[in-house]
Specification:
Blueprint (H helix, E strand, L loop, with lengths): L5 H15 L3 H18 L7 E6 L3 H15 L3 E6 L9 H8 L7 E3 L10 E5 L11 H11 L4 E5 L20 E5 L12 H4 L1 E5 L5 H4 L6 E4 L1 H4 L17 E5 L6 H14 L3 E5 L5 H7 L4 E3 L11 E4 L8 H10 L4 E3 L2 H8 L12 E2 L3 H8 L5 H15 L2 E4 L5 E3 L5 E4 L11 H14 L4 H23 L5 H15 L3
Parallel strand pairs: 1-2, 1-4, 2-3, 4-5, 5-6, 6-7, 8-17, 9-10, 9-12, 10-11, 12-13, 13-14, 14-15
Antiparallel strand pairs: 15-16, 16-17
């Protein structure tokens, strides 16, 4: 799903209305109904007090339509207007204000006390918000943030720009229900405290309409993943599912190799071999008896379909990394200490095969490319690197960013806050290596690996919440195939 800029969204809206042959007001009514359908699906009881904070533009018009529909369904609704009495309202906002039932209490925000609890729907400022806010806007946002219940922002938290980093105050939402596709700013870690949980509301934009725009930034959703997978026939044998080598684990860190090996098997690898210190062979054999072990540097690395290097390897393995990269001519996965060795010795860059996959977290990324002041700066650096070296890079975190060799940058939609524990990156290395070994293109391996990793984390998190561990995620990988309909 393409992610468009704020300036492009107005053009998309116009294109969509022309193709549908409907008015902007009719489209606003559809958006409001879709939001209300989502709202009801969350199980909020109709006795829950709801206050809609509506601005003077089309975002406010959406909010006013939502207030009217919720009232018709029996919800207790109030409207707090976020504009002066003589304000110049947009045409559709003005129409929806006139359509509000007189029974709905309506008052200027700040002139009456907000409900003590319940739900506040923030429909104040939309995608047109940019630059410095006026003082009255800051004051209104501060009042919204003082609300004692749950804040749900419509499309964007008010005060948050669509495409850039927030520089002032903004609404701090528990949930943001964004329309059509996520806006770039909602996917940046700097805005986590404003965005809250992100929900993308389908409002009818078609792929053909989005193709009219040239964005190279995308959002990966569940429906996109199934076509990326390879299919295997019933006569396939373990060799067809790939021979994977994992160069991982060192004395005291053999768990990294265990987790990567288990993840590779659970992802579908036919054969997994781990290059580990010989004294750790008993630990690996006990934990993953299906895996084979090899020891020392004298290996025929080219015999493997895919190689993952780095988890728990140690910072003193730069020469081993150089040897492996010099012996093979197929994409590899580089993670953890392989990336730290690369940061220490930039000459290794020239040895990395085209199509390879690098998987840094934020600190590893900064070691590789220098400190960045914003996530947008990291995005730019990753894009240039992938284009120059013909590689792929996964910048790990919430909504992990996949920068592909062809110039596309894809944010992932799956994942859970409960994945912030040790070993999750080791599991991802095993999964990505598995897909490469199964014959997936590097791009498809990246997208499938990152999505299934996040989805497995979601499924494990449903059971274990804050107690979720990496091995819980690994055991949930097979369920992710059932989820998307892949046998």
């Amino acid at each position: 799903m393409k992610i468009l800029s704020a300036s492009e969204i107005a053009n998309l809206d116009q294109l969509h209305l022309e193709k549908l042959g409907v008015s902007n007001h009719a489209f606003m009514e559809l958006v409001a109904q879709r939001f209300v359908d989502w709202f009801q699906s969350q199980g909020f009881p109709s006795t829950t007090p709801v206050v809609v904070c509506a601005g003077a533009g089309n975002n406010g018009g959406d909010g006013l339509a939502i207030a009217r529909i919720l009232y018709s369904l029996g919800f207790s609704v109030e409207v707090a207007t976020c504009f002066f009495a003589n304000a110049n309202l947009s045409t559709d906002c003005k129409q929806n204000l006139s359509l509000l039932p007189s029974q709905i209490p309506t008052y200027p925000l700040g002139h009456s006390a907000l409900p003590n609890g319940g739900i506040l729907i923030d429909a104040y400022l939309g995608i047109g918000c940019k630059g410095l806010l006026r003082e009255e806007a800051k004051e209104r946002i501060q009042i919204i943030n003082s609300f004692g219940g749950t804040i749900i922002s419509l499309d964007l938290p008010s005060g948050l720009p669509a495409d850039t980093i927030q520089s002032g105050v903004a609404v701090k939402a528990e949930m943001t229900v964004t329309l059509g596709f996520p806006k770039l700013s909602l996917l940046l870690p700097e805005h986590a405290e404003y965005t809250g949980r992100l929900e993308v509301l389908d409002i009818g934009f078609t792929e053909a309409e989005l193709e009219e725009f040239s964005s190279t930034t995308f959002f990966l959703k569940e429906k996109d993943v199934l076509p990326l997978h390879r299919r295997f026939h019933r006569f396939a044998h373990k060799g067809d599912f790939g021979k994977v080598l994992l160069v991982a684990g060192s004395k005291g860190k053999i768990g990294a190799a265990i987790l990567a090996g288990k993840a590779a098997f659970r992802t579908g690898s036919g054969l997994v071999t781990c290059l580990i210190p010989q004294e750790e062979r008993g630990s690996l054999a006990a934990a993953v008896p299906e895996a084979m072990c090899v020891f020392g540097e004298q290996q025929e690395f080219s015999a493997f379909d895919a190689i993952g290097i780095g988890p728990g390897l140690g910072l003193d393995q730069g020469e081993l990394l150089k040897k492996i990269l010099g012996d093979i001519h197929k994409p590899v996965v580089l993670d953890a200490d392989a990336l730290n060795c690369l940061a220490k010795d930039p000459s290794i860059w020239a040895l990395i095969p085209k199509g390879s996959i690098l998987t840094p977290h934020l600190k590893e990324f900064d070691r590789l490319f220098g400190r960045s002041t914003t996530h947008l700066e990291r995005m730019a650096k990753a894009k240039v690197c992938c284009f120059n070296y013909g590689i792929n890079l996964v910048l790990k975190g919430a909504n992990s960013l996949c920068s592909l060799a062809d110039g596309r940058q894809v944010f992932n939609s799956s994942g859970s806050k409960y994945m912030a524990t040790a070993g999750m990156g080791d599991a991802l290395t095993g999964m990505l290596s598995s897909y490469l070994g199964q014959g997936y293109s590097p791009e498809n391996a990246v997208l499938c690996g990152v999505f299934h990793h996040g989805l497995a984390g979601e499924l494990a998190g449903e059971d274990y919440l804050r107690g979720t561990m990496a091995h819980d995620l690994i055991e949930a990988i097979p369920q992710t195939y059932l989820r998307i309909g892949l046998d």
